[in-house]
Amino acid sequence: VRVDASLGEGWFYEGAGLYRHVWMTATDPLHVAPYGAFIQAAPHGAGATGKVEVALRNQSDTPRQARVRMTVLAPNGLAMARTERLVAVDAWSEGRSEADLAWDAAPLWSPADPQLHRLSVEVELDGVVRDAVDVPFGVRSAVFDPRRGFLLNGQPLKLLGACCHQDHAGVGAALPDALQVWRIQQLKAMGCNAYRAAHNPATPELMDACDRLGMLVIAETRRMSSDPESLEELSTLVRRDRNRPSVIAWSIGNEEQTIQGTEVGAAIARTMKRVVNRLDPSRPITAAKDQDFGEGVSRVVDILGFNYRTPQMEGYHARFPDQPIMGTETGSTVATRGEYVLDAARHIVPAYDREHPWWASTAEEWWILAADRPYIAGGFIWTGFDYRGEPTPYNRWPSVGSYFGAMDSCGFPKDNYWYYRAWWRPEPLLHLFPHWNWEGRGGQDIEVWVHSNLDRVELFLNGRSLGAQSVTRNRHLAWSVAYAPGVLEARGWKDGRLVTTQRRETAGAPVALRMSADRLRLVADGEDVAMIAVDAVDARGRPCPRAADLIQFSTTGDGRIIGVGNGDPVSHEADRADRRRLFNGLAQAILQTGRQGGPITITASAGGLRPASLRLDARQTRQST
Questions:
Q1: Residue 88 is part of which domain span?
Q2: Which residues of the chain have pLDDT under 70?
Q3: Cβ-based neighbours of 108, under 8 Å, separated by 6 or more
Q4: What is the pLDDT, as a whole number, of residue 312?
Q5: 414, 406 in Cβ contact below 8 A?
C-alpha cells in the first residue's frame, strides 16, 4: 500500500503516509457488514431498552438463510438480554435483522463512571457460527436543550472541552495507541469532560479511549460538502462511531466561510443532515461557525457552534431561543510554556492569560461568560495541546508550532492549564507563577499570578507577607512583587483553614538530571509506550526553570526511543533522535517496547550533570499499571 501525500490540503499539519493502523479483515462470505451492528440504547427506569439493527452481507453465488443471535452483556460480563432472528440474504446482496431488547439493572455511562455494555452478534449457518462481532456501547441519555444547555442522563452537565489535532511531539501524526490514551488522560486531569476531534475523524483507538475513560466527543467530518466522496466519508464516520456512548453530536463542518452563510451552504448542510439522520437518528448535528450567525447553515443544524465570538452568544440566544448553542472553539489564548516576558525577536509569548489574536479571548473572558449562562452548553478551548503549524502570532520562520495549547506539544502544562483545572475540577488547587529565577532584575517588579479555587490566598517573599486576597470565582489573583532571590510562597485557605501551599524558589545552577515515566510496567507487544519526562535540578534538588542542556538518551533491553520533544514551538531539532535540548527545564522521550519482554533501562545524560536512569518492566501479557 502506498500513499501519495505530496500535495497538502490542510492549513495545519495533517501528517503524511500511513500514520494509522491498516488492517486486512478476512471473513466468511456470509458476515456482518463493516460497522453493520448498531444498537440504540436508552435508559428505562432502572433498566434499559435497545433497538438493534444488524446488516448481513452475502458475498457468494448462493442465497443464504442465516440465524442471527444478538446478546447484550452487562459491564460485569453477564448476559442481560438475548434474541435471535432468521434472515434471508440473496446472493451478492445484504439483508437486515432488527430486534427490540430490554433488560433490568443497567448502570449508566458517564464521564465520572464510564460503564460499558457489549452487544454480541453471532451469524450461524448450517449449525456453524460463520461470523461474530462484539460491539461496546453505553446506556445513557444525552440531550441539548436550548435553555438548560447539555443534559447527560437527565442532569445538566457543562461541556468542559478541548479541541485537538492529531499530532504529538516526536511522532507527528503516527501516534501509538498508548499515547492516544495518555493524551486523553492528560485532558481529564485538567478537568475536561469533552473532546472535539478537529477537524477530521479521530482514530478508532482514541475513540476507544474516550469510551473507556469517560470523555464526551463531538465527532467531526473533514469536509462540508455534498460530493459523493465527502458523503461517503461522512457515512463511514457515522457508521463507525454511532455505537459509542462518548459521541454526543456530529459536526459537519468548520469555518466554511465561503458557504456557511449562504443558501448553497444550507442546501449542502441539509443533504449531510439527511445522511446522518438516516444512519443515526439518535444524535444531533452541529457546525462550527465564526461568522454569519443566523444565516445559511445556522438554520439547518440542530446545535449552533460558535467559534469564538463568545460575546455574540447572548444576543443570538435572544434571537433564536429554541436553538441550543455551544462554543465549538473558545479561547485561542497564546503562550510559550515557561516564558513570562514578551520577546517578538525570539518568537516568545508570555504565559500569562492575556495574549490572543483579534478574534479570540483570554481563558477567563470566555469561561466567565459561559459558566454563568445555563443555555450555553459549554465550550471547547482551542486547543488542548500545541500542534505543528499555525504558529500564531508569529506566522513565519523560525516558528513551526502553535502557541494555542493549554499544554505544549509534549503535554507539559502551561499556566492556563492550571486555570482550567482550578475551575473545572472540584479538588482544592493553588498554582503560583512565574518561576523565581530573575537574575539581573533585583528590585524590579515581577508580575505574580495565582490560579486557585480556594477562598483566600496570601503571598510571602522570604517569609514576609505581601498581603492576602480573596478569590473571586473564575478569576485569577495578581501581585506586583519587587524581585529578590529566595522563596516565593503562596498559602491557600478554605473555610478558615490552611489547605495548601506552593513555593517557587530561586534555583542554582543545574547539577543533575531527574527522570520520571507515566508507567513503569509495559506490554511487550512492540507497540506499547512509556512517556518519559526529564528535567534538571540544582544541588538542593530544586527544578531549574531556565535549563537548556542538551540531553542524550540511551537504552538497554528490548526497548527503543521513537521520538523526542521539548515543547518549544521554535525548535528545529529532529523528532526521531536520541537527543533533545531542555526547553525551559523540560524534555520528553517516548520509549516503545519490543516483543521479547524483560527489563528496559533508559538513561538521560548531559555534559557536566549527574545522569538519571529509570528501569521499566515489559511483559508479554496485559497487566495492571
A1: 30-137
A2: 622-625
A3: 43, 115, 138, 139, 140, 153
A4: 96
A5: yes
